[in-house]
Amino acid sequence: MINMDLKFNQKLISQYRNNSQVARVLTEDWVKQNSFCPNCGNEVLIQFTNNKPVADFSCGSCEQEYELKSKNGLLGNKINDGAYSTMVKRIQSDNNPNFFFLTYNKADWTVRDFLIIPKHYFVKELIEERRPLAATAKRAGWIGCNILLNSIPSSGRIFLVKDATVVNKGIVLSQWKQTCFLQGVSQAAKGWLIDVLNCIETIPKQTFTLDEVYQFEAALKFKHPENGHVKEKIRQQLQILRDKGLIDFVSRGVYKKV
Question: What is the DSSP string of 205-230?
Answer without folding.
Answer: SSEEEHHHHHTTHHHHHHH-TT-S-H
